[in-house]
Amino acid sequence: MPRTYVSRTDMCPLIPLQELIDLKMLQCKRVVNEALSTVDFVAPDDRVVFRTCEREQSRVVFQMGTSDAERALAVARLVENDVAGIDVNMGCPKEYSTKGGMGAALLSDPDKIEKILSTLVKGTQRPVTCKIRILPSLEDTLSLVKRIERTGIAAIAVHGRKREERPQHPVSCEAIKAVAETLSIPVIANGGSHDHIQGYLDIEDFRQATAASSVMVARAAMWNPSIFLKEGPRPLEEVMQKYIRYAVQYDNHYTNTKYCLCQMLREQLESPQGRLLHAAQSSQEICEAFGLGAFYEETTRELDARRAKLLARSPEEVEEPAEDTSGIIKMAVKFDRRAYSPQITPKMCLLEWCRREKLAQPVYETVQRPLDRLFCSVVTVAEQKYQSTLWDKSKKLAEQAAAIVCLRSQGLPEGRLREEGPSLHKRKREAPDQDTGDPRAQEPVMPGELCKKPFLALASGKESPLEGW
């Protein structure tokens, strides 16, 4: 959930975005989006994981979920030139975070907390902060925050509830106050939306009650972002319309826009407008539900014209194989199983071609990067190596991508739907590529198990023979 820090002196907001998982960010490529005037961090499947712009660069704080110091540092270095600070979420009690050893799960491992924060403080150019929850005893809480302070972080946010507590439980202003009186670094009070913060003046009251230097507002800011106006919050309809305009102008995914609007509507979700929002399946339908249909059409026309102009200036490059000095033929390709027949895969096509040409079977060499756990494969056919420059989330997908590079560079059919080519004489159907999300599905082949398909699990700190390819 997006949160906002409000400083003690001038009530100027800093905006930490919703926690983003380190592994997801490490898959991303930084892209300057000229059409939107934004900087996008784009996943291999072309989804935008994080989007920011110059206007918010001095205020947005990047909050990550992590359980590993080296991954945390890699993410910080990826984004540090586009944000004002780096924050580690050590207070999220949700299962998606804790089951990976992140969020509130870190509270039971002070050594790991210290390593993560110390590594970030030493390795990044931006201020580093963290957010925690209080521990079962005040003594344990104070012991932990003292240890955290010694890492050199710039500030600490304290949510005044324990790991198992939820918003309906009262926030402990006394625990936050004890932390603030113990530490010399700024303490940010969090957790007051449910009980304390209904308007602008309540933010300062909560700060004083906790003796904190500033306040982090989450739910109250989601319910009505205009809570930060000194003159009082604006009508919800006005706030939602302004938010929708921003969302369309910056091409925000409609599911995220819809979620945020549902948070604002709350008890009005059963109203006619709430029902229209609930039924909306696109940004256009959301706009129409709020009387902004004409705005949507005009804005999308402008964006399309801007993109067309950029494409005309920089025509799309034709995908051609390129041979580098290492002798490996490379292409930026991925295997999208939806584009292929379930019975025929690129690997099967390549194997059948090798049999017809009386060549040795293709040999796949696959490595996994330790930081983001992605895979890359090189296939050798007739003493020539082929590789996709895009890393994949499973060993099988990486091998299929390597096979595609070989087939395309030879001008051979690869089994795509509606593709004309020779039929395959299958001996045994290859298991369909799957990615269940279960780490066991990506376990390396052990030495001696399949000698023609060696797999290298790279240890941290060791150079990968494919690194940088």
In short:
This protein has 469 residues and is an alpha/beta fold. Helix content is 34%, strand content 18%.
Please characterize this protein's 3D structure.
By secondary structure, the protein is α/β, with parallel strands linked by helices. The chain has helices at 22-26, 69-79, 95-98, 110-123, 138-149, 173-182, 200-210, 219-223, 236-249, 254-265, 272-279, 283-289, 293-313, 346-356, 395-409, and strands at residues 4-7, 13-16, 20-21, 29-33, 38-42, 48-52, 60-65, 85-90, 128-133, 155-159, 187-190, 214-217, 322-323, 328-331, 363-368, 375-381, 384-388, 455-457. Helix 14 (346-356) crosses helix 15. Residues 7-11, 314-323 and 425-469 have low confidence and may be disordered. Keywords: Flavoprotein, FMN, Oxidoreductase, tRNA processing. Its cofactor is FMN. It comes from Delphinapterus leucas. GO terms for molecular function: flavin adenine dinucleotide binding; tRNA binding; tRNA dihydrouridine synthase activity.
